[in-house]
Every structure is written in structure tokens, then in C-alpha cells.
Specification:
Its EC number is 4.2.3.4. It is found in: Cytoplasm. By secondary structure, the protein is of the alpha/beta class. It has helices spanning 34-41, 53-69, 88-100, 115-127, 141-147, 185-202, 204-219, 222-241, 256-265, 274-291, 297-309, 330-337, 367-378, and strands at residues 11-15, 22-27, 47-52, 74-79, 108-113, 133-138, 152-157, 160-167, 172-176, 348-355, 358-365. It folds into 2 domains: 11-182, Rossmann fold; 190-379, Up-down Bundle (Dehydroquinate synthase-like, alpha domain), CATH 1.20.1090. 46% of the residues lie in helices and 18% in strands. The strands form 3 sheets. A 7-stranded mixed beta sheet has the order 1-2-9-6-5-3-4, sandwiched between helices. Helix 4 (115-127) links the parallel strand 5 (108-113) and strand 6. Helix 3 packs across helix 4 (115-127), helix 5 packs parallel to helix 6 (185-202) and helix 9 (256-265) crosses helix 10 (274-291). Residues 2-7 have low confidence and may be disordered.
């Protein structure tokens, strides 16, 4: 765990990818510096801002002003909110919008929004004119600590989450912590699940610190920025050594195999935000690890207790409409998990725990054990 940071000084975390390296700039009120940072990176570039309607009301004008202040011409593409926008139809809308705006290969796409916008805009940037650079300006806690970093972009398929996409690294990430002030408590909690994930999977000291200081993170100030910086450093280190998820990067999917199945079962709707699915999925992963005698039941309970203490759902029964859409059916969830990107030749792969602070990749998990475990959890 790193020392506390000063809130009046932006913190820069580097993502070391050789000639594709980039910076994550974290701090309060760093958005106004966006234009000048882009001008230094790409002199003469124009920009197209992709955002959603809710973010546009709060931050689009300020983003356009920051670009204009640096002499950067910009256009805008505004789409609907939520996971429904991670679709083929909206991808086409954004891609055609970029082409209509005459965005060229030496220009930039700016993803202004949460994880949905980052994934959608980044994927469109990766395919328009066979690849245009893009900048991430994440406006949710989840996006600032996770989805804006690492180059994963994509949309959902009716078969599952993020099944169509590409690795396309941003050239810059601007994480202005002031934008988090406009989040609802539920949205902030959902993002916090990804912060806790970094402690659970690889940093026991961070998890200890989160247990003691989560109240300060929710109230704002130095603890919030410290948590964001620690999360970005953790992800940057993993991405730098395994950019395309051929090894260690899969550890970042702790909670996601269960969580993505639950998101799909709820129709990628606001009944279950992504971070909420990850929270439930992390608890299920911890409890399944205990079932396999990899960790103690007390360690699994510790994970559940911390997530519950901040108001996150931690069991399937916490999800709205639990009895609907297959949530109470183990076979449906098993079918959805079979679409997980970590499945290899039909064999299930899970990220499980050897202790709080140490996750491992477990290949070829016996599906009958998973189904029996799920059935027990679904029965309450």
C-alpha cells in the first residue's frame, strides 16, 4: 500500500507498453488540462467526443471547452445510457458518426463516460479506418480504476458480455476525481467493488487498508484518490507484463465468471450494475474456493463481510427479481458461464483464492462441482 497522496497535486501512473506506453493522470479538477495534454501528444489533431446523455449534461460542455482552450476542433456523438448501448446497433451508430465527422487516422476519439462508453468508443476507434487513437476520460469510479486502463474494448452479444471486441490501448487516461461527485451512491458502490477486487486478488495490505478506510473513500478526499491510484498501479503492472491476457492478466477477472453470467441473466439491465455483479461473483468465487479447501471459510466470510459493509450485494438473492430470468436456475447460469472468454475447449477456468490477497488461475474445473455449488447457493 502506498503512502497517502496530496489532493492538490495530480498523480501520474504510467502503463509501460514500450512505444505504446501512456499515462493515467489522476486528480481533482484535471479535466481542464485535457486539451493541452492532447495537443502535446498529437499536435494538430481533431477530436470526436463519444459520450452518453447523462454524462453530456454534466461534463460535455467542460470537455469541449478544455479542447477549445488548446485550439482543438471537436465534434460530439451522444448515445443512450447503460449496457444496452454496448450493442451492434450503437456500435454502427458511433462508427458512422466518426466517419461522418471526417475523423482521420491522425485524429482522436475521446471516450467521455463510464465503462460502457469507454468500451464502445474504444472499440469503434479500433475499427474505424482500421484504427484511430483514443483518449479515455472515465467519469465513474469503476471506469477510473478498471475499464479505462488496459486496452480492452468491446460490445456485448446476446450470448454474453464483451464477446465482440479488440485490444486497443488508449494514448492517455484523464481521471478527474471531481466528476465522481455527480455519481449516485449506488453507482459509486458498484465502482468500489473493483477497488476491493485489487486487494482481494493480489494485495493483502491494500485490503486491510480498505477495511479501515472505506468510509473516507466514500466521503471523498485523499483516501479516495489514494485508492484510485493504488488500483491503477495494480492494473498497470499486470497489463504491462500480460497485455493480451495470455497469463496473469486473467487474475483481473476475479468474480467476473460468475458476475458476467448474472449480468447476462438479468438482461444487462440496471437491475444489476457491472460492479454489483462483480461483488456477488467475488463472494461466490471466495466461497467456492473454500468449498475446494483452497481458503478457510473465515477468509471467504471476510470478503463477503467487507463488501456487504459498503452496501454491495453479496448473494444472488440480493439481486432484484431473483426468481426471474433464470437467476434461480443453475443450468441457465452454467450455460451462460460456458460463454465466458476464459473457457478453453469447453473447459471452465475460474479465478479462485488461496488467501485474501492471492488469487490463482484454476483450469479445468469440474462443471458438476460448480453446478452443485450454484444450486446450493440459489436455494438460499
Amino acid at each position: 500500500m502506498t503512502a497517502p497522496i496530496k489532493t492538490n497535486n495530480p498523480v501520474t501512473v504510467g502503463v509501460a507498453l514500450g512505444d505504446r506506453a501512456y499515462d493515467i493522470v489522476i486528480g481533482r479538477d484535471v479535466l481542464p488540462s485535457l486539451g493541452h495534454r492532447i495537443a502535446a501528444l498529437r499536435p494538430g489533431a481533431r477530436a470526436a467526443i463519444v459520450t452518453d446523455r447523462t454524462v453530456a449534461r454534466h461534463w460535455l460542455g467542460k470537455t469541449e471547452a478544455a479542447l477549445a482552450d488548446a485550439g482543438i476542433a471537436s465534434s460530439r456523438i451522444v448515445v443512450g445510457e447503460g449496457e444496452a448501448s454496448k450493442s451492434y446497433a450503437v456500435l454502427q451508430e458511433v462508427s458512422e458518426g466518426l466517419i461522418a465527422a471526417k475523423i482521420e487516422r491522425n485524429d482522436l476519439v475521446i471516450a467521455l463516460g463510464g465503462g460502457v462508453i469507454g468500451d464502445l468508443a474504444g472499440f469503434a476507434a479500433s475499427i474505424v479506418r482500421r484504427g484511430v487513437d483514443f483518449v479515455q476520460v472515465p467519469t465513474s469510479l469503476l471506469a477510473q480504476v478498471d475499464s479505462s486502463v488496459g486496452g480492452k474494448t468491446g460490445i456485448n452479444s446476446p450470448h454474453g458480455k464483451n464477446l465482440v471486441g479488440a485490444f486497443h490501448q488508449p494514448v492517455l487516461v484523464i481521471a478527474d476525481t471531481a466528476v465522481l461527485d455527480t455519481l449516485s451512491p449506488r453507482q459509486f458502490r458498484a465502482g468500489y467493488a473493483e477497488v476491493a477486487k485489487y486487494g482481494v486478488l493480489g494485495d493483502a495490505a491494500l485490503f486491510d487498508w480498505l477495511e479501515a478506510h472505506h468510509g473516507e473513500i466514500f466521503s471523498g478526499g485523499a483516501a479516495r484518490e489514494q485508492a484510485i491510484a493504488a488500483s491503477c498501479r495494480a492494473k498497470a503492472e499486470i497489463v504491462a507484463r500480460d497485455e493480451r491476457e495470455t497469463g496473469d492478466r486473467a487474475l483481473l477477472n476475479l468474480g467476473h465468471t460468475f458476475g458476467h453470467a448474472l449480468e447476462a441473466a438479468t438482461g444487462f439491465s440496471d437491475r444489476l450494475f457491472h460492479g454489483e455483479g462483480v461483488a456477488v461473483g467475488m463472494v461466490l468465487a471466495a466461497e467456492f474456493s473454500a468449498r475446494l479447501n483452497m481458503i478457510s471459510a473465515s477468509d471467504a466470510a471476510r470478503v463477503q463481510r467487507h463488501l456487504a459493509s459498503v452496501g454491495l450485494p453479496t448473494k444472488v438473492q440480493d439481486i432484484a427479481g431473483f426468481q426471474q430470468e433464470g437467476l434461480a436456475d443453475a443450468d441457465t447460469l452454467m450455460t451462460l458461464m460456458a460463454q465466458d472468454k476464459k473457457v478453453k475447449r469447453g473447459r471452465l477456468t475460474f479465478i479462485l483464492l488461496e488467501q485474501v490477497g492471492k488469487a490463482v488461475i484454476v483450469n479445468d474445473v469440474d462443471p458438476s462441482m460448480v453446478r452443485a455449488f450454484l444450486q446450493e447457493k440459489l436455494s438460499g
